[in-house]
Every structure is written in C-alpha cells, then in structure tokens.
C-alpha cells in the first residue's frame, strides 16, 4: 500500500506536508477560545449558508435516527471549525471525541480510538490534512463500511484482523483542503467551506464576547477592532482582550475607537490589520525587486516556519491582492508597496 504511494503514478502530494504541529493558539488562548465558544447555533454568528445547510443535514439525520454523514470543514485558522464540530455534537445529542491529524501516528492509534467510540459519536479530527497516509487509508473502510482491517505481524506470518467500528460521524477540519487526496475527500458526504467574516459579523461576535467578559465596548471601538481582524473571529477576540488591558491601565476602562486604535497600533497591527510578520514578508520581497522569492528565504527573514507562513500569514495578503503565489516563488504587488509606503528595490541591494 505504501509502496504504491512512492511511484511516479501517484499524483497525491508527497505525503502532504511535514507532520509537525500546526500553528495553533497557545494554551491560555485555547481556554479563552473555549470560554467564548458558542454553544448553540443561535450564538454562532454569520456563515449563513454553511449553517443553514448543516442544520438541514442534522435534522434529516436526526429524523431518520441515523448518524449524520461525514463532514469536512475547511477554512483558515480561527474561523469556527472547532466550534461547528462541537455544535454538530450538541445538536445530535452525541458524544464528541476530539483529536488531531498529527496525534494519530499509527494505524493502531486509530483502531484504538474508533473501536472505543460510543455508537453515534462525533469524532472531530482537527488538521486532518496532516493525518499520515497509512492511517488515512485505514479510515476509508471505517468511514464507508464501519470496519478496519488491522495487519498483524509481517512477512509470511502477516495476518489481518477485522475490527468492527460503531456507527460514528467523522468531522474533519482542515486549513488546506487542497492537500487532501481525492479518495479521502470523496468519502465525506458534507463539504463545508468557511469564509472570512465581514466586519459586521465580527462586530456582533465582539459584542457577544464583550458581554461575556464584562467589557464596556462602544460600537466605534468594536468597528475599529473588527476592521483590523482579517475577517477572523479568533483574532477579533484576541485583540479585544489585549485592547481591554490598555483601556484598563491607560484609559477609563471602556474600549472606545480611540483606545482601540492606539492599542492596536502599539501591538503592531496596522490600519488594514496587517501584523508585523506580514509586513516583513512584503519587506523582504521589496528588497528583492518584488520577487519571486522562495518561501524558505522569506521564512528565514521573518523568523517563521514555512508552514506557518503558508497557513497563517499568507492567505490574508493574497486576499488583499498584496501577494501572489507563482511557480517560481512569492511575488508582492504594487498595491502592497503602496500600502507600506515603500518602493520595491533592485535585487542586488539586498
Ligand atoms: P478554528 O477551529 O476554525 O480554528 P474555532 O472554532 O476554534 O476556530 O474558533 C475560534 C474562536 O472564534 C472561538 O473561540 C469562538 O469563540 C470564535 N468564533 C469562531 N466562529 C464564530 C462565530 N461564527 N460566532 C461566534 N464566535 C465565533
């Protein structure tokens, strides 16, 4: 099975990307995320089409008394994939079991997890594009026919053992849907893509969070934070928490537009919401005549892993039209340099 993967006929990306942990929120932020996480669909702001469709699939499955079809959630970090997985479990009245692609190293890890599930469970696999290929293939039969064949021993003594898996729903989350193999993607009945949120939705999220955290947030303050949050609820909530500190120590405690603007500025978040690393990416490109430049070089300059650049920092730059991915490397656009107020310099000046 593994050998086939290494032939030239295998068009899948070469075992995807390194299975190092993805850039995830720090522990204190995880707790903070959890405290603000919507627990009902009515608290989940925006993404109307995704939510409406999901509710129909959940209701239909509930009415039939069956587990809902396997769900694949894709979208950038912090857009609400984990939150939706928990809402699926809540709506189905089903236990939620959470793991992540890199945590399932061997087929045995998966077998242990699947065979211990309570019937009807929701198995949430975050960063599912980082599942090792061999584990992914074991999942196929579990998803389709509720069994897995485990190979015991090797060589002439190799035997397979068939293990039954209780009915379950796999909810996978990925920031890189394009890295999933076609056969894997085809096994998900429900494919949902989360998009960045418009400012109005982020304002609503911030107002809810401010209520939960007892923060005095005025509408202009919420607007200011929303505009600089790159369309991402996790960033909006993170900035609210930071701005609150400034408001408390240096202001009256209330988060006004003035306080928010000054605080975000001091945190290095500019008027469009670019953070220092994003500006460094554009800076190094400007020093190389606008690019193209390889991700490795950019990573060395910005002091970030390539994978973090790709998953966390580049998507917003691409969305703004500031950065292009080309076969020869990254290229920054004139708009990017205009925003930064810098000119692209000739390559030999670097
Ligand atoms: P992901 O799994 O996509 O990285 P999460 O589900 O962990 O994102 O969401 C990050 C934080 O953003 C959560 O704590 C939650 O409070 C907030 N959040 C995300 N989406 C929404 C939403 N639609 N409405 C309200 N809060 C949201």
Structure description:
By secondary structure, the protein is an alpha/beta fold. The chain has three domains: 14-193, Rossmann fold (3-Layer(aba) Sandwich), CATH 3.40.50.300; 199-266, Helicase, Ruva Protein, domain 3 (Orthogonal Bundle), CATH 1.10.8.60; 276-340, Arc Repressor Mutant, subunit A. Helices cover 47% and strands 13% of the residues. It contains 15 helices and nine strands. The chain has helices spanning 2-5, 27-36, 48-64, 81-92, 107-115, 133-145, 182-186, 199-213, 219-227, 233-250, 257-266, 276-287, 295-302, 306-319, 334-340; strands at residues 71-74, 96-100, 121-126, 147-152, 159-164, 168-174, 190-193, 323-326, 329-332. The strands form three sheets. Strands 2-3-6-1-7 form a five-stranded parallel beta sheet, with helices on one face. A two-stranded antiparallel ribbon has the order 4-5. A two-stranded antiparallel ribbon has the order 8-9. Helix 8 crosses helix 10 (233-250) and helix 10 crosses helix 11 (257-266). The chain binds adenosine-5'-diphosphate. Residues 33, 36-38, 44-47, 77-83, 173, 205, 233-234, 237 line the site of adenosine-5'-diphosphate.
- Bound small molecules, which ones? adenosine-5'-diphosphate
Number of strands: 9
Q: Give the CATH level 1 class of the largest domain.
A: Alpha Beta
Compute the average pLDDT. Answer: 88
Compute the number of helices.
15
Given the C-alpha coordinates, what overall shape results?
globular
CATH architecture identity of the largest domain: 3-Layer(aba) Sandwich
Oligomer: single chain
Number of domain units: 3
Poorly predicted parts: 1-23
CATH fold-type name of the largest domain? Rossmann fold
Biggest sheet character = 5 strands, parallel
- Structural class of the helices, strands and pairings? alpha/beta
**DSSP helix fraction:** 40-55%
Q: Strand order, biggest sheet?
A: 2-3-6-1-7
The share of residues in extended strands comes to: 5-15%
């Amino acid at each position: 099975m593994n050998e086939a993967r290494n032939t030239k006929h295998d068009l899948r990306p070469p075992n995807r990307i390194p299975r190092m942990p993805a850039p995830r929120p720090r522990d204190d932020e995880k707790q903070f995320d959890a405290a603000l996480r919507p627990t009902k669909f009515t608290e989940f702001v925006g993404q109307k089409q995704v939510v409406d469709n999901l509710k129909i699939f959940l209701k239909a499955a509930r009415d039939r008394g069956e587990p809902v079809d396997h769900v694949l959630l894709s979208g950038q970090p912090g857009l609400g994939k984990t939150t939706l997985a928990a809402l699926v479990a809540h709506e189905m009245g089903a236990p939620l079991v959470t793991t992540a692609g890199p945590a399932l190293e061997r087929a045995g890890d998966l077998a242990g997890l699947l065979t211990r599930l309570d019937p009807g469970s929701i198995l949430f696999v975050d960063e599912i594009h980082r599942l090792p290929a061999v584990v992914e293939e074991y999942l196929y039969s579990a998803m389709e026919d509720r069994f897995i064949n485990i190979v015991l021993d090797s060589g002439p003594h190799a035997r397979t053992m068939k293990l039954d898996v209780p009915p379950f729903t796999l909810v996978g989350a990925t920031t890189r849907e394009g890295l999933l193999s076609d056969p894997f993607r085809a096994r998900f009945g429900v494919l949902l893509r989360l998009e960045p949120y418009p400012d109005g939705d982020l304002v609503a999220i911030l107002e809810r969070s401010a209520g939960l955290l007892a923060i005095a947030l005025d509408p202009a303050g919420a607007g200011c934070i929303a505009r600089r949050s790159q369309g991402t609820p996790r960033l909006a909530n993170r900035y609210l928490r930071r701005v609150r500190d400034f408001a408390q120590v240096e202001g009256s405690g209330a988060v006004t537009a003035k306080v928010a603007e000054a605080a975000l500025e001091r945190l290095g978040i500019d008027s469009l919401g670019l953070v220092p690393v994003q500006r460094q990416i554009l800076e190094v490109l400007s020093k190389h005549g606008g690019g193209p430049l390889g991700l490795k070089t950019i990573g060395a300059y910005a002091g970030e892993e390539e994978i973090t650049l790709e998953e966390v920092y580049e998507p917003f730059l691409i969305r703004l039209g500031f950065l292009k991915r080309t076969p020869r490397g990254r290229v920054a656009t004139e708009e990017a340099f205009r925003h930064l107020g810098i000119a692209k310099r000739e390559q030999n000046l670097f």
